[in-house]
Design goal:
four-stranded antiparallel beta sheet, seven-stranded mixed beta sheet, 120 residues, 51% strand, 11 strands
Length: 120
């Protein structure tokens, strides 16, 4: 059984940094791993994705501040978040799938999320 478990969330002040981790267990085929987030009252949105060629893709709102990476030896996906803003406050989810989809539900596997709160 495949599991994706996020960690690393927390509360920080604006301008601070956090690094999220997504540990994957179990055998699975994945050509894309991604981070999504969902703020209260808003739809879940894509933040960053890493495709099968290792090319990162970012939402415009986080480009230049967030970095997605993966440690293949440990099967861990990371999201380094710098210069955090109150607008980044959300539950962050990781996902794994056969392609980089825009919609979270299109991914084969998804985690339960980790909360990020940024105060001004």
């Amino acid at each position: 059984q495949v599991q994706l478990v996020e960690s690393g969330g927390g509360s920080v002040q604006a301008g601070g940094s956090l690094r999220l981790s997504c540990a994957a267990s179990g055998q699975y085929s994945s050509h894309c791993m991604a981070w999504f987030r969902q703020a209260p009252g808003k739809e879940r949105e894509g933040v960053a994705a890493l495709d099968s060629a290792g090319v990162p893709h970012y939402a415009r709102s986080v480009r230049g501040r967030f970095t997605i990476s993966k440690d293949n030896t440990k099967s861990v996906l990371y999201l380094q978040m710098n210069s955090l803003e109150p607008e980044d406050t959300a539950m962050y989810y990781c996902a794994a799938g056969l392609a980089c989809y825009i919609v979270f539900s299109s991914y084969t596997y998804g985690g339960q999320g980790t909360q990020v709160t940024v105060s001004s």
